[in-house]
Amino acid sequence: MAERSLLMIPGPVEVSPGVLAAFSSPPPGHTAPALIAAFGEALESMRRVWLAEPSSQPFVVGGGGTAAMDMAVANLVSPGDRVAVVKTGYFSDRMAEMLRRQGAATLEIGAEPGGAPSPGEVREALAAERAAGAAPCRALFATHVDTSTGVRIDPEPLARLAREHGMIAVFDGVCAAAGERFDMAAWDADVYLTASQKALGLPPGLALMVVSKRALAARAARRGTPPPMYLDWEAWLPVMRAYEERRAAYFSTPPTNLVLALAAGLAEIETEGVAARFASHARAAAALRAAWRALGLRPLPAREELVANTLSALLLPADAAEVPAASSPSLPAGSTRADAPALVARIAEHGVTVATGLLPDLRSRYFRVGHMGWVVGRPDLLRRTVAAVASALRECGLGAGEQAERQALAALDPLPARETPAVVAAASPW
Ligand code: PMP
User: Which of 51, 87, 132, 274 could pair covalently with 92 via S-S, beta carbons 3.0-4.6 A apart?
Assistant: First the structure.
């Protein structure tokens, strides 16, 4: 079998040996004692990792980030509701589309690709709406880190704005939860949703969210057609409550191996410490930013404070050189300019998988590298990634020179390695 490529896209991500071991066990039934214990522990742990109130409700459902988004929309929004959406890229566009499909009237507040509206601009947009006689917005939706642009917003002022305006505050944390600080209780946010395959460091397949008491009450007070059955919090509530009381319950069969992996992954995060996990993402991201800079790659986000810690969205050097097609087998036939997809293909030839851009208009000009979950504690794997990018840039005629390459790799030197017990490490491909 060919050697496996190191997976450095913004999800799915490499998982820890402990998570892999939990995931790889023979599937338990949903009433098995080991499953009940893992489910209960995972639910309790989610509140702590989300820094959420004891009165909040975690949900763990088979699905992914899109299912989690649909669930939030279906439970909180009724046809005709007015809702605000802060748009920072592809995934907030998806959220806006879901809200429109739900029959909501959306107030969409966006920015240029790579930018984000400021909280002041959101406030002004809400005020202008009201002044024009529109009904007040019932909810505000925003994407903590938009994976298409690498833009991270600051959720705190938006959550505060939501409180001031009586709006439910929903944050898509799919590319952020457990990697970027989100203080659900202190910020008094209502829904923080994610998927398993990102900074939680699990295989894909779970939709996860923690929901405030206020948001649950909003669902309970909802009139008219109920949400689709699979998405209905009220259908899942007895199941979540039962497992937390260490009893089995059934509504729809849970992906049991993923629940085992979730308990293992959350336990690893809590052993390291939630604040320490955020800090290790920030440290790895800062080192990588320095490495990319040395290689002549610029972040797509327009301002430094918008650059996420969980992924890098990188623009090719502006002076992308013309290279003879013959010397660069990754270039599309007839092309003499290395564009971002060609670079990504070249990086893959060095054993590291990174992602192309998601924004159609910029696709040729940028690419994305994920750095979340377990890998942020493995500087050797981050170094391998930077080395692959540096080699590919050189081969595509975009290299920054030997000294710059050395400088890029040296930027990762200060990163501490996380200890992995030998017996556990033996099970990992890395
Ligand atoms: N929101 C964000 C911010 C995402 O990054 C993604 C996935 N890349 C999604 C939503 C959708 O998640 P999924 O692919 O698991 O449906």
Answer: 87
